[in-house]
Amino acid sequence: MKILPIIAVTAASLIMSVVVSSASTIAAPTLTAGTTWTVDDLATWQTSGNTMGGMSVTAKFSDNTVQTLIWGNGTGVTGNPFIDQGAWSLKTNPMAGNTYDYSTHWDLVNLTGKNITSVVLEGMTDPNGYGTVFDINDITIQTPGSLYGRTVTSQDNNSALNVSANYSNLVALEGSNVINGVSQPWGDLYHTLTLTFSHSTGSLGFGNEIFSFSTDTDNVNSHDAVPEPATMLLFGAGLAGLAGLRTRKRK
Fold first, then answer.
1. Chain-centroid distance, C-alpha 205
2. Which candidate, 135, 51, 48, places its Cα nearest to that of 94?
3. Which of 34, 89, 123, 151 is the most exposed place for a label (fewest CB within 10 A)?
4. What is the spatial distance between Cα 250 and Cα 78, in angstroms, rounded to a whole number?
5. In angstroms, what is the C-alpha Rg of the chain?
6. For the chain, how long is the longest CA-to-CA vector?
7. Over 61-72, what HEC string results?
8. 225: which residues sit within 8 A by CB, 6+ positions away?
9. Which residues of 16-35 are buried (b: 16+ CB within 10 A; e: fewer)?
10. Where are the beta strands (DSSP E) in 123-232?
């Protein structure tokens, strides 16, 4: 049986409640509209660790050290920001597995001696190329061609680890869901996934362990950032203000 998330829409953001059967505690993922990215088309809904090359992965550590790496097809990311310390890495297992399948999971490994407090995955990094997006589809909102998706679920047995997930920066499909001449997001595809970690002991992040999770991705062809609705409203308000000022000067 597939358990589907329930979505409630608010003016500020979308909040998703999802049932997760796992040992780690994952808070209900939050959805933030952010900046809309418009893509030419969906390349494929069936993606794997071998087809997400170019995705940016940023890890933040408990001493505020930050390291950003670029995902390699078939290799994921591996970094070592500390001298004489172990490495951290993020890979899918297996690398060729479809990210929608529960048999495929992402392994975040931290052997650096420092706690990882958060990880940010930014799916699209090349403004003229091939990119990856996160699909949280719950049937009621579906970008044409994207099929099903799902949010973060835990696949580990660390009962002391608390995880919060945020999907941000909606993705729109060019020529689809057009309102007033502008392609609008359907609400199921996101550019960015942020995972934040804490421990039941009160410490921030996790160290010297592995966090395994699942989340679905799609691949897209090319993209350009477009202003958020709030930005457009402020721009419009500014133009209206200038017009009013000019009218008063004429009087």
1. 19
2. 48
3. 34
4. 64
5. 20
6. 73
7. ECCCCEEEEECE
8. 35, 36, 37, 127
9. bebebebebbbeebebbbbb
10. 130-135, 153-154, 161-173, 178-179, 182-183, 189-199, 209-214, 217-226
Task: Note whether 220 and 145 are within 8 A (CB).
Answer: no
Residue in the block written with tokens 């942020």: 194
Which tens digits make up the pLDDT trace of 199-246?
877 778 888 889 999 999 998 886 554 544 544 433 344 444 434 444
- Cβ atoms of 141 and 187 within 8 Å: the answer is yes
**Strands lying side by side in the sheet with 105-110:** 77-79, 88-93, 105-110, 209-214, 153-154
Q: Residues near 160 by Cβ (< 8 Å), separated by ≥ 6?
A: 199, 200, 201
Nearest of 146, 219, 151, 214 to residue 177 by alpha carbon: 146
What's 101's DSSP letter? Answer: S
Residue range 5-55, pLDDT digits in tens: 333 333 333 333 333 334 577 778 999 999 998 888 888 888 899 989 889
Amino acid type, 64: N
Helix, strand or coil for residue 236?
helix
- For the chain, domain boundaries: 6-226
Q: Which pair of tokens denotes residue 40?
A: 């030419």
Separation of alpha carbons 78 and 69, rounded Å: 8
